[in-house]
From TrEMBL:
This is ArsR/SmtB family transcription factor. It comes from the Bacteria. Residues 3-99 form the HTH arsR-type domain. Transmembrane segments: none annotated. NCBIfam families: HTH_metalloreg. It comes from Pseudonocardia benzenivorans.
Amino acid sequence: MVVDSGERRAVDRLFHALSDGTRRDIVVRTLQGEHSVSALARLYPMSFAAVQKHVAVLHEAGLVAKRRQGREQLVSGDVEALRRAGAVLDALEDVWRARVERMGALLEEDS
């Protein structure tokens, strides 16, 4: 489970980034292939600047990588970041399942 504050902040950034539907869609698209920010901006009913901000949040969370090619900024998804998110959720599920098992054991003792 997440212990130190640096890890907590990283997990918070990760789940904050994934909390928005547009950002999740950008992650899916960039996992399928590299896209320029301008190409991504054409896909959404919002300004280029808004898409650029979404990409910045995703980049800060480690969900996408950015690289410059000429005047374009290219974005690609990082599957390892999604695996980290999955690992955190798996750890939380383990805690939850352990509690349910303990409750079941206590109920069996009382019967």
